[in-house]
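Please predict the structure of the following assembly.
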Amino acid sequence: MSKDTFTALVVDDEELARALVVEHLRAHPEIRILAECANGFEAVKAATEQKPDLLFLDIQMPKLDGFEVLELLECQPATVFITAFDQFAIKAFESHAVDYLLKPFSEARFEEALAKAKAKCLAGQISVPHPAELSAAARDKWPLERIVVRDGSKVTFISLDKLDYVQAQDDYVELKTEGRSYLKQQTLSSLENQLDPQRFLRVHRSFLLPVDRLARLEQGLTDSWTAILRDGTKLPVSKSGYAKLKELIG
Amino acid sequence: MHPILSSRTRLLAYLLIWVPLGGLLAGLAVMQDWSRLEALALAAPMAMLGAGIYLSPFYLCKVVSVENQSHRNLFITWALAAVTAAGLWSGAAWGVARFLGRLEALHALPQRITPALPVVWSLGIVLYLASAAFYYLLIALERAQKAEAEQLQLRMLAQEAELKALRAQLNPHFLFNSLNSISALTTVDSKRAREMCVLLSDFLRKSLGLGERRQVALREELDLVRAYLSIEQIRFGERLKVAWDIEPEAENALVPTLLLQPLVENAIKHGISVLPEGGELRLHATVLKGTVTFAVDNPSDLDAPSKPGLGLGLRQVRQRLWGRFPERCRFDSSNSDGRHRVVLTFPLEMES
């Protein structure tokens, strides 16, 4: 695929930091800046609606950080992280993000990153692993305190206290909370790894539940068990899920 | 754990004490016209038994502490214990004497022991009380040693916190972000770029200068904070507003160096930078009846999961304030109406 124009999104909560990136990009007539975003919400909305080729993304932003933004995007633009923050985060995404720039950066360094991003964009999508895993590994935040989901171009936070249960749906997880359900592109295993195993238990290949939602267990005809949640929902429990439950709550 | 049983050398020393005590018993007996054989035959097992019995007052010492018992209680408890223990010991003397009396050479022992029993008993009481006093002394010594070690550890912790606090002043992220702002300004607004270079140098010079002193007037601390905030205001633009409300008298108050800047930095980090729309930072200082109250107040993110306890930065501020004004200061951190507020209260002390 050959391409002579690229669309780009510039995301940073500091106006001056955005201005700097925009200024560098202005030297490139082949780049069309779709929008400048001052926070993660705007970034998710703009990226979902306009599907940019390139994304210049700050990491530390209010409410929704750069990792979370990336985690919520279905399209995966060639992303250049821009941050004043240090190596621990960088290590994790080194191999996956196109490039990262440490503030303040030189023009030459910016050009290098831009060239890489364009090349990646021409080469097509090669994003593995999923940003949700990347984000967890990079942020050093474990266990997760909340789950970010996207509903259209709107971002919603699901508080873990309000999570009823999670069901696997192919490459997605379906998160049930307060009578609603949200889909998120992530595997159940990766979500399981991000949660506190004392609080959340995978009772079945396709189901994960907060232990405190469990009302009781019912034994089926054969050796099978069913978990009854406080709101009456019935979920299947596998043999190994039953063993884990017994170990956790005795 | 018993202080004597827990160490081999102490146990050995303790047992060695019982050799002269056994000798004393034998000597007393010889003075009562016992034969040497009789005296030794009885004194040796009595010393061994005594060594065992007189380990026990320690446990009573542990339970009955001198500090929180009335004199009357103490007297009754120890009198009863001593009388009982000594009774046991002299009873044992009698038993041993009767047992040894079966031997031909010691046949007179049972008759000899009876008149000696009151002496053994009184000696037992004296020994019991002496050993109790000894254990009390040991416990007090051990406690003093422990307290000293704790004191030392506390002092070391405080010093460490002090060092860390001073070192943490130059937050590298603050520097990198400021330099990035300058980098952006050079083309957009070169005059402001220069201005920011000056502000940043000013801040660095001030904080390096202050770092060498132990305490400074609040005025100088506020100057540093002002420099810091002007830089952050360029970075955050409209998002950062600052309201000052400082009573002139408060500016003379002496405070530990670099106490306020971490407070303000914390307010920016958790107040302004996490809010898309930013907010107003409020600084107050007042003096009332010789007491200074300094408060930093910032908007907080209501959606953020609240974490219990204070962060490292605030803990260090509290520690350093306490180190300077032990038991005469307060550190309060509270959340209400979407704002986080840290209030320091300390005595007004001025440079003479």
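The two ends of chain B are 54 Å apart (CA to CA). Strands of chain B lie at 215-217, 240-246, 254-256, 279-288, 291-299, 330-336, 339-347.
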